[in-house]
# Entry
Amino acid sequence: MSNYKSDFIREIYSRGYIHQSTDLTAIDKKLSKMKMTAYIGFDATSDSLHIGSLIPLMLLSWFQHFENKPIALIGGGTTMVGDPSGKDESRRLMKINEISKNKDSIKKIFKKFITFNDNKALMLDNYQWLSKKNYIDFIRTVGSHLTINRMLNFDSVKSRLSREQPLSFLEFNYMILQSYDFLHLNKNYACEMQMGGSDQWGNIVNGIELVRKINNKTVYGITSPLITTSSGEKMGKTASGAIWLNKEKLKSYDFYQFWRNIDDIDVGKFLKLFTFLDLNEISKLSKLKGSEINEAKKILAFEVTKICRGHNEAKKAESMAKNTFEKGAADERMATFKIKKSSLKNNEISIVDAMIKLNLINSRGEAKRLIKGGGVKINNATIKDINLIVNETYFKNKDVARIACGKKRFGLIKVIN
# Structure
């Protein structure tokens, strides 16, 4: 256990949230004596955040848990510019109405992690102040305090230039705009700290410097590590697509199964980062070995789904998984493809077509490779013929057939009149 005095720093340090900080000792000392206000920014590049944003969302939630005041800042203004951090090429310039729709959707996600009642937290949009700035006044006020020399040395810029990838003047301004956000929040909302991912370190440091020079205030920054799986893959995306936080973009069952199927070695780390479970309980779960580790994975999957989707969605996903994997049952809440009896009699659906319609595979080539490798089953019977037609024999005494692709992907074919 760490020797930090403040509950917040002690908690996030123990859970592995801290990668870099400007002065962790000073932050800890301040938090041990008083409450603080801190912010994290989220650009509206999509109508949902994915699990790559879970760490900052959890940080804001823990910050509020210890009675501090979080600000969830949505980047309505900065999204119009595009953050070059971690990117090899320029982001697509988005239309204002598209950004507006994305903002409305993302705001709903914030409310799952933060309580905004009674001024306990703030949800702000930097479009409110950035859109009102006069360019010449802005450059005179802010630009004179930020040096190109220093900005070129930050990884987000240096790595892009070293690969000879173009960095537009528009994107280069992103760092200045984010720095101004911190200045504005400090002046108008007494915000003293910015948190974010490790790729935001340069932006955060610049903001701290700007606040010091213009507001004559000392403010702080904390970044979290880039979370990867044991295989080295970046959290947030998989071969089959992004793991979205909104259930409209990814079904809760699939969201649950993502966490249920993580590598054994990642269980303890992810329980610390992505759940609110007590650290002592996590320590016990992390020590499970062999088949028992599956119980810890089920707990992880349930807890993360509960946080992101709500208790009811977590229970449904848990129930579906239990029916599918433990009982071998055809749970009709799973992905279902409906086919008419007449089409079935006329031999109109092949096993490959069914797999594609159920989104169990990405291509016909993948389907054929799975079948040849013995990885596809209908009603627990292994399929070996890539040209197999799904006919009436698979629906004896019932109207549902269960298709399994490997050990993790399942779907149903349902016969209708």
DSSP finds 19 helices and 13 strands in the chain.
